Amino acid sequence: MRTRLARRLRRSRRRARVLDASAEQLPFADETVDTVVSTLVLCTVDDPDPVLREIGRVLRPRGQLLFLEHVRSDSPRLAYWQDRLADPWRRFAEGCHCNRATLELIRASGLELEDVQDASWRRMPPIVRPLILGVATKSGI
Asked: Which of 18, 68, 84, 104 is the S-S candidate for 133 at Cβ 3.0 to 4.6 Å?
């Protein structure tokens, strides 16, 4: 996806730069970023708490986190299977924690949830179909 993004940016002639960085150590000064986009990141990192702290650090007041993430199912039956298959799925899917309570982690990070929608990833195994997409905002000063 990084290659596709770089190619698309070159064609668009927009002023942007693609950076490689750890989600736990973003190369930006405090409160200098307007928007962070997280697409299937918080389900994949080993520990999402430092990542969310780092996002909070770099976001300007009223800056936004736009996210699309796997979540633990609200269905007890599906959540049971997410738990049972979490380890083999993590090995298969390069670290994805399909049973992570991602929405609760975002909420606990201090970011204010503005708009959250449930979604489903069709044509994927049931344990990874539950998704959320939304916006969380850093409080203004």
From this structure: 68
Strand partners, 135: 66, 115
Considering its fold, how many domains does the chain have in total? 1
> Can you tell me the distance from the alpha carbon of 135 to that of 103, in angstroms, rounded to the nearest whole number?
11
Core vs surface per residue 6-29: b (16+ CB within 10 A) or e: eeeeeeeeeeeeeeeeebeebeee
Contact by Cβ (8 Å): 95, 140: no
Q: Is 60 exposed, middle or buried (0-12, 13-18, 19+ CB in 10 A)?
A: middle
Are residues 96 and 88 in contact, defined by beta-carbon separation less than 8 angstroms? no
Question: In this structure, what are the phi and psi dihedrals at residue 97, rounded to the nearest 5 degrees?
Answer: -95, 90
Q: Are 58 and 38 contacting, i.e. CB atoms less than 8 angstroms apart?
A: no
At 50, which CATH number? 3.40.50.150
pLDDT in tens, 4-61: 888 888 898 788 878 888 999 999 999 999 999 999 999 999 999 999 999 999 999 9
Q: Domain of 94?
A: 36-137
What is the H or E stretch that residue 23 is in? none
| Residue 74 pLDDT greater than 90, yes or no | yes
